[in-house]
Specification:
- The protein is mainly alpha-helical and about 300 residues long.
- The chain has one domain (about 5-300).
- It has twelve helices and no strands.
- Mean pLDDT is about 85; it is low at about 1-10 and about 300-308.
Length: about 300
């Protein structure tokens, strides 16, 4: 089904929620596979290149199938589209580098700092007012991260800085996605996300390339691009069937998926401080989501009753 065949904002909440859960399942496959391969000695930046090369090939083939001309790639606000794609690539690179050293459960907890960063930056960058409820949630979220990473303890790992950088880059990427939504088609944004990541990482991948030693590792390597594209494609389509206010909380399924994979694949479970920090970060994110939902409903005019 092409994106044009989907009617925006159809009221099919169950389908939207299912697609949201599927999207984050795809993302969990990527992080789990990358951790498996970096522990096997495959360079993290090589993995990032393959992830974007697969994404690029699939996005380009779909656009060509739908008959997009060369002029169709000259999208409005191209500079912002390229910056958005660069931020996503930087976030992926930093996350993949961190996965070599940090547990999946910790990197996922830190990544979910991104919505809190978005809220914190919405006033200076977007001019959106942040009231006391959301400001309190921002502070709670940062406390949760401090509990999870314990920056002044003996267990603090320098790679946590990479994960924090990934979250910050992803937050800026999210803000640009919000501003470009409705201006640039999702297919074109998908294409440029794959294109920029591929071009940026190709020289590095050539220099550090190390081939997997067996078929399973090759399968995992090649699947990263597919799951990256599929996750973003399903995530985009989910919002055609249910509003963001309904879907946002289901993004936290990512933490649950990675906890399960961490135990099943690597035999590790999060320590108590990571769990406490994750719960606090999730609570802060849900407070921000709930407050934005309340404000959006309060500001939405109530239509007059029939016959009024």
């Amino acid at each position: 089904m092409s994106p044009a065949a989907i009617t925006p904002k159809q009221d099919r909440a169950a389908l939207g929620i299912s697609m949201m859960l599927l999207a984050y399942l795809c993302f969990s496959f990527i992080d789990t596979g990358v951790k498996w391969l970096v522990l096997a000695g495959i360079p993290a930046l090589q993995l990032a290149f393959v992830r974007y090369a697969g994404h690029f090939a699939l996005s380009l083939s779909l656009l060509l199938r739908d008959g997009v001309s060369v002029r169709g790639f000259a999208t409005p606000k191209l500079g912002l589209v390229l910056l958005r794609s660069l931020l996503l690539a930087v976030s992926t690179m930093l996350n993949f580098l961190a996965l070599r050293y940090l547990p999946l459960t910790l990197t996922s907890t830190i990544l979910f700092l991104a919505p809190i960063i978005v809220c914190a930056l919405s006033w200076p960058l977007l001019g959106e007012r942040v009231g006391k409820f959301r400001l309190t949630a921002i502070l709670i979220g940062f406390v949760g991260i401090l509990i999870a990473i314990r920056p002044f303890g003996v267990d603090f790992h320098w790679a946590t800085v990479l994960s924090l950088g990934a979250a910050a880059s992803f937050a800026l990427y999210t803000m640009l996605t919000r501003s470009l939504s409705g201006v640039v088609s999702s297919g074109i944004m998908q294409f440029y996300s794959g294109f920029v990541g591929t071009v940026l990482l190709l020289p590095v991948a050539v220099m550090v390339w190390r081939s997997p030693v067996d078929g399973i590792d090759w399968l995992i390597l090649l699947s990263t691009g597919f799951f990256g594209w599929l996750g973003h494609e399903v995530l985009t389509r989910a919002f055609h069937y249910a509003p963001a206010s309904m879907l946002t909380p289901f993004g936290y399924s990512f933490m649950l998926y990675l906890t399960a994979w961490s135990w099943l694949v690597f035999g590790t479970l999060p320590d108590r401080w990571t769990v406490v920090g994750a719960v606090i970060v999730a609570a802060a994110g849900l407070i921000i989501w709930g407050r934005e939902l309340y404000l959006s409903r309060r500001l939405t005019p109530v239509p007059p009753a029939p016959g009024a």
